[in-house]
Structure formats: C-alpha cells, structure tokens
C-alpha cells in the first residue's frame, strides 16, 4: 500500500491525490517545491532541516507571487503528519505548491494555489556505490538558467526543464550527472546538487548569486567544514579549477555528500573519495545516522526515543 498524500489540508489516499489536466501548472510549470529527508537515526526518526526547507518553499512562492493558503507552522505540521501516517521510518518528503485550476493563459494570478505533501522511500540518488566510490560527471553543454531569466534561487518546477536537459545529456552519455556553467562560463551547479571543490586543504564553492539554488545541504556543509577547522571560500570558480582540484563533491538533500571521481574523463585527485570529503561525510552521518545533533538540525518524530509522545506541535514549532 502506498503512503497517504496530504492535499490541501487533509490526508488522502495515494491514488486519489489528483489534479485536472487543465491546471495551470501542467501547462506552464508553475509550481514551487522542496525535497526533504527523514532519517532513521539511532535516536529515532527525525526530519532534517524541516524549518529551513519550509521557509525556502515560502521564499520560492513569494518570488512567484503565490500565496500559500497555510502558515509555515501548519505546513510543518502537515509534513510531520504525512510522515507519521506513512509508517515509514526513513523517507524522502516532497511538499509542493502549485497553480491549479482557474484560467488557462500565461497569467497565473487567476489560478488557485494548491498544496500537497507526498512521501516515498528514496535511497541513494546518484547510484549504489556513489557515496563511497564517487561518480563520474561531465560539464553540461547546457548553461544554467541565467539570473535575469528565471531566478535559480527559487526551487520552481519550471527550472527543472533546464535540469532535465542537463541530466538527460549526462545520463545518455554514460555519466551520473552534469555540471552546468552559468552564462559567463563559470561553475554553477549540477542538475540537482551544489558543487564543491578542495585544493591544498581549502574548500571552494560557487557564490549563491551564481545561478544556483542556495542549497540547504550546501549551507550545512559550509558550517560543518568550518567547525572542522577548514577554510571555505564562496567565490567564482572556473571550469578548469574543477579538473585541477584535489577533491570535488556534490551536495543535496537527495545526493547528501557525493564524491566526484572524474569530470569530462579528467581524474579528480587520486580518483577516489578524498580526505576532506570523507571528513564531511563522517560529520554529516554522525548527525543523520547516529542522531548526534549538536547543531539542532533534526526534528525528531514524536515516537522517537528522545522525545515524549504528543510532542508533534512542540517539535515543529522549535
Ligand atoms: N541545486 C539544485 C538544482 C537542486 O535541485 C538541489 C536539490 C540542490 C541544488 C541542493 O539543494 P538542497 O537539497 O537544499 O541541499 N535537489 C533536490 C531534488 C532532486 C530531484 O531529483 O527531484 C533534492 O536533492 O532533494
């Protein structure tokens, strides 16, 4: 049996969570969404960065002048409710707000905003051994959407047409992922991940104004790296810096921290997971696997050993 889907305020059966074919979103990509992970930690199931993801959803909605008919607190509660109802101890969570029925035509303002939350099991994003062995990537021939065309910092459905082109090209050519450059030929991001490199012990990642989604994992990795004593520079990165790096890794909710072992057939460093990448993974997995959450990034579900039952509202308010 598939998990229930929360739609416009209530849980419905998976197969009943439907929309009309003339919904605005189907024609014009007018949705904003999030991807969140719930982990089964040793201290119980916990959602990683619940508040941050919900906030980014509302930021994306604001950019597209969408009024989501629920508060952020209500949506956080809906997410916890959907995860709990699924019975899954670990899952991927997909909240989405979109322009539904109303009027066709480009103007979305006449179409009502609908909201849904779905959950499913989603294992490794870039292949089985990816986290340990790393993946092969290419530089995409497609550029990432430029800042004055579609805002990359909104996680909007339409942006993923660009991501799809990048991804299909990479996969059909035998790579796991494509890295897109921005309009100036500088490194932007993968189709669904942010990109980091390390050289001589310093970590670099493209600046958030650089045609990229300011990833929540990216932000966390920057914090983890600093807490481990590494210098992190958010800067402009040219393509060849990737080839010359000691280490390259990709970050994202789905991808977590995935080493990149080659780009365009250039071996990165030794071609194996690097020391810094491993240190960051260890710090990250200590939080999401062991539940050692010194940063306060996890929202434990009420059943979790560390939380009293009935703590749902308290948990999501925090
Ligand atoms: N850039 C893009 C374009 C992107 O889609 C993601 C997440 C990131 C960066 C990393 O952001 P964050 O998850 O906040 O660290 N991509 C999501 C979607 C993947 C999908 O295939 O759908 C994800 O990782 O959940």
Description of the structure:
It is globular, with a radius of gyration of 20 Å. It is of the alpha+beta class and 318 residues long. Mean pLDDT is 95; it is low at 305-310. β14 and β15 form a beta hairpin. The chain has 2 domains: 5-122 and 293-317, D-amino Acid Aminotransferase, Chain A, domain 1 (2-Layer Sandwich), CATH 3.30.470; 130-273, Alpha-Beta Barrel (D-amino Acid Aminotransferase, Chain A, domain 2), CATH 3.20.10.10. Helices cover 28% and strands 28% of the residues. The strands form 2 sheets. Strands 8, 9, 10, 11, 12, 13, 14, 15 and 16 form a 9-stranded mixed sheet that branches. Strands 1, 2, 3, 4, 5, 6, 7 and 17 form an 8-stranded antiparallel sheet that branches. It has 9 helices and 17 strands. It binds ligand PPE. Ligand PPE binds next to α6 and β14.
**So what's the CATH class of the largest domain?**
Alpha Beta
What share of the residues does DSSP label as strand, in percent? Answer: 25-35%
The set of bound ligands, ions and cofactors reads:
ligand PPE
Uncertain runs with pLDDT below 50, 5 residues or more?
305-310
Series of secondary-structure elements, N-terminal to C-terminal: EEHEEEHHEEHEHEEEEHEHEEEHEH
Q: CATH superfamily of the largest domain, please?
A: D-amino Acid Aminotransferase, subunit A, domain 2
Shape: globular
Number of helices: 9
The radius of gyration computed from the alpha-carbon positions, rounded to a whole number of angstroms, is 20 Å
């Amino acid at each position: 049996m598939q998990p229930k889907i929360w739609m416009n305020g209530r849980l419905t059966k998976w197969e009943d969570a439907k929309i009309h074919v003339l919904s605005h979103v189907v024609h014009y990509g007018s949705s904003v969404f999030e991807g969140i992970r719930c982990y089964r930690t040793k201290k119980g199931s916990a959602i990683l960065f619940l508040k941050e993801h919900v906030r980014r959803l509302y930021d994306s909605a604001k950019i597209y002048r969408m009024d989501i008919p629920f508060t952020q607190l209500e949506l956080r509660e809906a997410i916890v409710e959907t995860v709990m109802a699924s019975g899954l101890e670990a899952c991927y969570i997909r909240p989405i707000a979109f322009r539904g029925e109303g009027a066709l035509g480009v103007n979305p303002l006449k179409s009502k905003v609908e909201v849904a939350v779905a959950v499913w099991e989603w294992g490794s994003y870039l292949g089985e051994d990816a986290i340990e062995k790393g993946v092969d990537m290419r530089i995409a021939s497609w550029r990432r959407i430029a800042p004055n065309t579609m805002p990359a910092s909104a996680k909007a459905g339409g942006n993923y047409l660009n991501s799809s082109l990048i991804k299909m090209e990479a996969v059909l050519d035998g790579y796991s992922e494509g890295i897109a450059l921005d309009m100036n030929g500088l490194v932007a991001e993968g189709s669904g991940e942010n990109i980091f490199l390390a050289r001589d012990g310093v970590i670099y990642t493209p600046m958030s104004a650089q045609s990229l989604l300011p990833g929540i994992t990216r932000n966390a990795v920057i914090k983890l790296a600093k807490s481990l004593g590494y210098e992190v520079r958010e800067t402009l990165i040219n393509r060849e810096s990737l080839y010359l790096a000691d280490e390259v890794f990709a970050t994202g909710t789905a991808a977590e921290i995935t080493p990149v072992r080659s780009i365009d057939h250039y071996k990165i460093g030794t071609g194996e997971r690097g020391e810094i990448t491993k240190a960051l993974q260890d710090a990250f997995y200590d939080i999401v696997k062991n539940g050692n959450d010194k940063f306060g990034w996890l929202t434990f579900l009420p059943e979790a050993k560390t939380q009293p039952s009935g703590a749902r509202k308290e948990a999501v308010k925090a």
